[in-house]
DNA sequence: GCGTCGTAGTCAACGGTGTTGACAACACAG
DNA sequence: CTGTGTTGTCAACACCGTTGACTACGACGC
């Protein structure tokens, strides 16, 4: 049974990436990985200590691909806007690894380069090194968490998602206005807001704050 | 075996809440729930269709308790700041249900009252109904995602968490400055930023934006 | 060329998860 | 007193990540 090419970390990560790209947050399992590679599932443990290590590797690959595609000819603000949108898109496309990327530090090249890029944009905006360090964390934790949540939401089964959307368009409108006056006033608008608009709103708030910090500093100097 | 009080949805949710309050994201399992109640795990399925329904119920109870504790004598801005902090705290205390609350609409009383409270604060700030609807989503999605991520992070095993903290204080400082000039400039500050500060930074950015929208509107009128 | 040795793959198994279907025991209505 | 329907029990299913024993292979020293 030596016809198949020998297993390598490279091959395993490739297969894991393919699985993670398929729908469903639980698409990436060791048993499926074995089937995809045409070997016994436990053979994988000869090359990786545990599943976590595989997921971190796939994660960093995605992060690296994202920052690599970052257009360098943009000003700092559209650059960070692009990065936020692309991050959410990548997370939604790879639901199996999204939660891991969001809360773990991979400590791998892709992450280093992303941190470097974000810090660069913030310093370009005119922040001090200390401000840049802080706003970097504010920006990336916010975007990462939001992307992870979007991803998890997109990976929900159809029925749960439909229920959630119906809530905004129907149930919230049907609440008694006497007890919920604010909802009554806002209900007609709530149903029309989609995810992209919310992300835009978040990014705008974060980057407005960066601009105001930068200009305040500019005034002092 | 009828000495034990008969099972009710109420009793089950109580037990589930107790389990969810213990450490670990996977503290709440059907089998443990059975043990806690002193009955066979599958008896629970006589009262709830599946585990998801239980988790949603526990989740809404927490949301309700949070909004109930909201001090009403605060101005709109400190009120939203309090709500954000308390939400994160609750999520961290109940790691088992945090991811669910963050991305699902529970469509239950606790959620309604929270939405009502946030919308009320935003309208008080001076936003139009449409702006309030939009900023409500921006605020709550951001806070919920961030809280869910904090919760998941807090529920990590000690070793992973230590690795992550060591990354900021050691590995990022050890990167070659030639290739990572921005990280080199910011490294000394990165290690000193803690989670509370980041949350403050996020909330500040969001609410500054609300204020600027409100004052822009005030100018026009 | 032969023996040895480490390693990569296989296999069975463990303990865990949510969930289902058959069965029994009870409370209650007629 | 006899159904009847609800409620708890039990065994089982199909998964999950992971471990330990076993085996077959390639490479190396002599």
Short description:
The structure is a homodimer of 221-residue chains. In chain A, 71% of the residues lie in helices and 0% in strands.
Q: How does this model look, in words?
A:
The structure is a homodimer of 221-residue chains. The first copy, chain A, is mostly helical. In chain A, 71% of the residues lie in helices and 0% in strands. Chain A has ten helices and no strands. Chain A has helices spanning 9-21, 30-37, 51-69, 76-93, 98-103, 109-124, 129-154, 158-171, 181-190, 195-220. In chain A, α3 (51-69) packs parallel to α6 (109-124), α4 (76-93) packs antiparallel against α10 and α7 (129-154) runs antiparallel to α10. In chain A, 43% of the residues are buried. The mean pLDDT of chain A is 93. Chain A binds a DNA duplex (30 and 30 nucleotides) through residues 1-2, 6-7, 26, 29-31, 39-43, 45-47, 50-51.
Intertermini distance of chain A: 72 Å
How is the quaternary structure best described? homodimer
Tell me, what's the shape of chain A?
flat
**What's the helix count of chain A?**
10
- How many strands of chain A? 0
**Into which percent range does the helicity of residues of chain A fall?**
over 70%
Mean pLDDT of chain A: 93
Broad structural category of chain A: mainly alpha
Write the layout of secondary structure elements.
The structure is a homodimer of 221-residue chains.
Chain A: H1 9-21, H2 30-37, H3 51-69, H4 76-93, H5 98-103, H6 109-124, H7 129-154, H8 158-171, H9 181-190, H10 195-220
Helix pairs in contact in A: 1-2, 1-3, 3-4, 3-6, 4-6, 4-7, 4-10, 6-7, 7-10
Chain A binds a DNA duplex (30 and 30 nucleotides) through loops.
């Amino acid at each position: 049974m030596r016809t198949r090419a020998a297993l390598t970390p490279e091959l395993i990560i490739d297969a894991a990436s393919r699985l993670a790209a398929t729908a469903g947050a639980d698409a990436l399992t060791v048993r499926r990985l074995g089937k995809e590679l045409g070997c016994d599932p436990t053979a994988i443990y000869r090359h990786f200590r545990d599943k976590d290590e595989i997921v971190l590797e796939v994660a960093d690959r995605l992060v690296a691909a994202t920052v690599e595609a970052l257009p360098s000819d943009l000003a700092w603000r559209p650059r960070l806007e692009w990065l936020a949108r692309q991050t959410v898109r990548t997370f939604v496309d790879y639901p199996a690894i999204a939660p891991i990327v969001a809360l773990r530090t991979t400590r791998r090249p892709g992450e280093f380069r992303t941190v470097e890029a974000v810090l660069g944009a913030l310093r370009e905006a005119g922040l001090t090194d200390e401000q840049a360090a802080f706003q970097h964390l504010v920006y990336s934790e916010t975007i990462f968490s939001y992307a992870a949540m979007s991803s998890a939401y997109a990976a929900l089964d159809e029925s749960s998602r439909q229920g959630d959307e119906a809530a905004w368009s129907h149930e919230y409108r049907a609440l008694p206005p006497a007890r919920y006056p604010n909802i009554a006033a806002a209900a007609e608008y709530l149903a029309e807001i989609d995810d992209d608009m919310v992300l835009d709103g978040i990014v705008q708030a974060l980057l407005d704050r960066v601009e105001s910090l930068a200009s305040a500093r500019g005034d002092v100097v």
